[in-house]
Amino acid sequence: MKISPALRQKVFQRAFFICEYCLIHQSDSYLPLQIEHIISQKHHILHQFSNLACACFLCNRLKGSDLSTVFPPDFKVIRLYRPRTDAWLEHFKISKTLILPKTEIGDATVHLLKLNSDERQLERNFLISKNSFPHQVKRIKIHSRRESMFIAQSKGIFLKSRRDFMFSGASFYIKSLRDFS
Fold first, then answer.
1. Residue 172 host element (H or E)
2. How many CB atoms lie under 10 A from the CB of residue 60?
3. Where are any strands of DSSP class E within 10-165?
4. Are 22 and 120 in contact (CB under 8 A)?
5. Half-sphere exposure of 132 toward its Cβ, with a 13 Å CA cutoff?
6. What pTM value is reported for the model?
7. How far is it, in rounded angstroms, from Cα 90 to Cα 136?
8. Which residues contact 113 (CB under 8 A, 6 or more apart)?
9. Rounded to whole angstroms, how far apart are CA atoms 13 and 55?
10. In the chain, N or C: fewer CB atoms in 10 Å?
11. What is the chain's pLDDT, residue by residue, as a tens digit (181 residues)?
């Protein structure tokens, strides 16, 4: 069963056309963004909106069907970052061209998805020079203040207080992801 074009578009719009793992925007990616199953289809999960994420080609390919990874020497199993249930800034932070882990989950994800490979750092360095990384989120249509907090946290934007965002009628504004890292 294929993902319908309407569902695909809904997933991309929810993510603002940004990879939910490495934060690259569609306009800055050579290959089109892809729909990623957070829990792989091989685990008998259907195309549920809550299980789909927007991912760049590299993040999608490197994650594959993995849900976790193992680290030596004790071979502890550590789950990967889940865009629908985890807040990006709880597990990662941006430092120049690096995506640094803040938690074991962040460490596992950075390692498995090779988020700090030389190629990815070169790409981020170029995007930073164009002021395109991290990409700016400018306006989000919302229905309530509570939904705005949920949307912001699902986008990996950690809101410390109500002063961190502006709420005006049906619009929610965030200056930039950079302001929250």
1. strand 171-173
2. 20
3. 34-37, 52-55, 68-71, 76-79, 92-95, 98-101, 139-141
4. yes
5. 14
6. 0.75
7. 19
8. 21, 22, 58, 59, 62, 63
9. 12
10. N
11. 688 999 999 999 999 999 999 999 999 988 999 999 998 877 666 678 889 999 999 999 999 999 999 988 889 999 999 998 999 999 999 999 999 999 999 999 999 999 999 999 999 999 999 888 887 654 444 444 444 444 554 444 444 444 334 333 333 334 334 434 3
The amino acid occupying position 83 is: P
Instruction: Give residue for tokens 């993995």.
Output: 66
Cβ count within 10 A of residue 124:
24
What is the enclosing helix (H) or strand (E) of 167? strand 166-168
